[in-house]
Amino acid sequence: HNLIKSLESEGDAFDDHLEELIGDFSELSDLVAASHVVTITAVCVGIMQFFRYLSFDKKLGIVTETIFVVFFDLLPVLFIFITIVIAYGVLGTGIYGAQLREWSTLGKSIGSLFLMMLGEYGEYFELRDISPIETGIFFCSFVVIISMVLFNMVLAVILTVYEDKYKEVVDADQKAMALEEERIAKAAEAAKKKNQ
User: Fold this and answer.
1) What are phi and psi of 106, to 5 degrees?
2) Taking the mean position of all CA atoms in its chain, how far away is CA 181?
3) Other C-beta atoms within 10 Å of 167: how many?
4) Distance between CA 50 and CA 55 in Å, rounded?
5) Residues 155-173: what's their mean pLDDT?
6) Beta strands in the chain (DSSP E)
7) Helical H runs in 55-104?
8) Which of 24-33, 109-118, 177-186 has the highest mean pLDDT?
9) With contact defined as beta carbons under 8 Å apart, do 67 and 159 qualify?
10) What is the arithmetic mean of pLDDT over 172-178?
């Protein structure tokens, strides 16, 4: 009987110690999450500073201007992209969610779709084993729409803006050169008249 009471009191002490340890880990987890936020913020500020310094050089400034101008031009394409990815995420969750953990929720399905966009096609065979016909249609249509159509639309918008910005810089350089040549020619003509 005493042994049972002793074990129960040790069990309570262990439970208390375990709860304290879990609380310590919870605080540590919060600190790690806060450090991630600080790191992400520092990286974003660093990237913005980098682009700010790029604008000092004419040629590199074209890249910076292109990024800032193209952002607003890409918003409609981004809206279409997000809509398609969410639609395919819902579809993927419906088709594969019951059998595959990677497709069990909308968030996981969208994550799997992003991996597919980056060229990770390792799950294809698992998907095909679940539903061969739907997987062929799902996979091919997603790759064609996202990889070929939308990415090319994004590239077309970026390259068009870049080309316009490049032409502006070249035109400004040519105008500056023409003005400088004209100024030199006038100075040379004035010097000739003065020497005569």
Assistant:
1) -65, -40
2) 46
3) 11
4) 9
5) 86
6) none
7) 58-73, 75-96
8) 109-118
9) no
10) 84
